[in-house]
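Standup notes
- DV: blocked on the single-chain target, sequence here:
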Amino acid sequence: MKKYSFDDFPKHKTMLKPWADKWIANGLRTRSIPDSDKPIIRDYIKRMYITAGKESPPDRRIVFVSSPFVGVVAAGFAAAIWYLKDKGKLAATYDTTDTATLAATDDATNAATRAATRAATRAATHDATNAATGAATLAATRDATYAATRAATDDATRDATNAATHDATYAATHDATKKKSNLWYIFNISVNQIAGLFVEKKYVKFLVSCVGSADRFYQGGNFWSGWVAYQTFFRYIAKLDIDWHKFDIWEKLCELSSWRYVHEKFCIVCDFPVKLDVKDGRGHCETGPYIQWSDGTGIYMLNGIRVPRWLVEIKAEQIDPKLALEEKNADVQREIIRKVGYDRILKACNAETIEDWTCPNTGLKYSMKNMKFGAIDRRYLCYEHASMPGIFYAKCVPPEAKNILQMRAFQTGVFTREQLSKGVDDTQILALLPQEVK
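- DV (later): unblocked, structure below
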């Protein structure tokens, strides 16, 4: 059989972008799952299990939740409780020595979260179709379609959506010890306290550890629209004559629902967000969380970078410029400087130029400045982002670095502080510095 090629169907190539746009919109969907769709979703989930050769959970264990924050907690707790129940370890007479071992090792967590059908269901409904489309299309056409559909869809959605669900896992398992304004997420619940409502105190740590491992059995739903965009192009536009009935399950669940946790005993389906602001494919909102669900949980981002809540909600003129110099995370510091303004920071910190230097390898300009704020008097290396004009960094210079060249050697890992303290030859540094900076 002749393989499918755009050479034979040139009109199909013009349909790539509209098809990608359709699935980009699906990946960025913001609405709650209608009640009328839930029985349909449950049916597809049952079919997914059955197609994978697994027994489907009953309806009562195919559960809909309001957000990935709630979903990851529910999935981790459920996996842990099923494990403990199956092992008979919820009995009041359970040996406390064994409990201590359980809390101290990863083995039980691994076992509790390994009882999942993620891989099996994906293989049964997704991977087989992938192999079939690969065999039926010419490589050049396949690559062009991939770039125009999956890659384009992922570029427009992945950073903003997949990051959100992984961030929810982190937030759920790291009870806040900082002020709420310093957090980059909204999740006002103590997972440890909730765990205590379900099990004895000795099992709380185990339940929380299973929450942290719940990403072992997730599937992305509409957040994984990129691959579905690619496959469905061959299904509906190219109309490849292959068996699509298994893939149909994966496709429909991608359209009808969001993130899900697929376990042998249960399936937890997360709702779509009610808000999702994206800039150049990255999460971005200057007035609140860039993504938020109906239960109020959400995540703060500026230009795709998770940032503390205060940086988004406080007006630029009210932010203390010294916070930029105190920030250790380079990406967050960049966003603080971007919002506050580079010139304002220099002025507020009484910046005095010590040395200016242009790297002969890259042509990039650097300036070492002395800055004072309060009792702090430090040197900072200031420079513009290599690929984002107008975006600046200010990095504290260690005392061992005597000039900009030595600071760049330390910053790029060419020499350690200890090596610098013993003295190094500047011409040697220049030869070792990167030839380009991205």
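- Follow-up: The two ends are 46 Å apart (CA to CA).
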